[in-house]
Every structure is written in C-alpha cells, then in structure tokens.
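pasting input
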Amino acid sequence: NAGVTQTPKFQVLKTGQSMTLQCAQDMNHNSMYWYRQDPGMGLRLIYYSASEGTTDKGEVPNGYNVSRLNKREFSLRLESAAPSQTSVYFCASSEGAGGNQPQHFGDGTRLSIL
Amino acid sequence: SQQGEEDPQALSIQEGENATMNCSYKTSINNLQWYRQNSGRGLVHLILIRSNEREKHSGRLRVTLDTSKKSSSLLITASRAADTASYFCATGKSGGYNKLIFGAGTRLAVHP
C-alpha cells in the first residue's frame, strides 16, 4: 500500500523560478491538504481540498496555488519562488472532514530556494 | 496561529522508562489527535480522542483529555529506542470544516 506519495523528495530552486509539487493518494480519500513544516513551528496549512473540485485557503496561502486534478491527485504550485518558501512540504489526505478524522501523510518534499 | 502547544519541547529518557508529553490548547475542540514523526519522514497518526472522551489506550500509549483545563497528555509506557521521534498534538475545532491545527511538537529521545 503506497498511501500518500509525494514527488519530488528534494528540490533546489533559484529565486523567481516556478515549480509544482505533486501528491497522489490511493486510499480513495475525499479530502487532501498541503502543509509546510518549518523548524520550531509545527505544521501550517497552506491549502486544502475538502472534496474533488473544491479548494480553499489555509493559514499561509500567499505565494502558492493548488489544483485538485482528480480525486487522487492534489498539486501545489510555487509561481515565483522566494527564499522564505524554503521548507519541508507535506501532503496529507483524510477520508472525510479534516479535523474529525485521522490524516495520512506523505514523506515530504524538501525544498530549498537560493 | 498554533492552537496546541506541547510541553516539554524536548525529553530525554532511558529505555524502559515512561515518557509523558503534554498539550494545551486555547479554544473549544471537537477532537484532539496525536501524531509521531520519525526523522526525515511524514507524520503518522497515533490516537484520536473526541471531546466527550476522557481517556484512550492503544498498546503502550495512553492519552487523556481534560476539556475543562484545555489540555491533553500522551503517555508512552516502557519506552524503546524505536520510540525516538517528535510527537505532535493537533486539534480539530468545533464548527466549520474542522481543519487540524498542529502544535510545535515534543522531541523525544530514548537512549538504550
């Protein structure tokens, strides 16, 4: 069982470059999330998708866009990367409403912006 | 903004000892969850306790919830070196879509 798969695992970008982080889940979950994790800060929600076809902003959405491509896939795009976006990015999924059920996480994408 | 705050920030114990981590939060919640994160990996769900529950067990894990004090604790009994990880509490707030809000975590080191 793959669970939640994130690609790539590591990426180095230059300031101003763009890239898309990919996430796919094989658990037939309705809800998907993108978080960033910074030292000493815990996880902060960037965007979430409660169900296929819907997306909503989380706590720190500025500088990011998302696409819920289908029920399985939820991508995160950085249009013009900034050093402040250096972080570890986690994708997660849950069967139903995000705060009511366990979330399943991928192993993260470690992103450095130079 | 962080809803849950764990205490202590770091904990170092010997194998076989018990480890207790605490979580405090600020607003009314629907449920509280505990997650473990091994170095370089994603978070793994451990236990979910609902606001109308006071205690829950899973193997060597015991979670308590005191809604009057807005606090929870995670007890790991008879710890093992493999328990070395960061532990996070996360709260689902009452009302709305109920997004999870994570604390900054407790780093647990269990020494053989």
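fyi The first strand of chain A starts at residue 4 and ends at 7.
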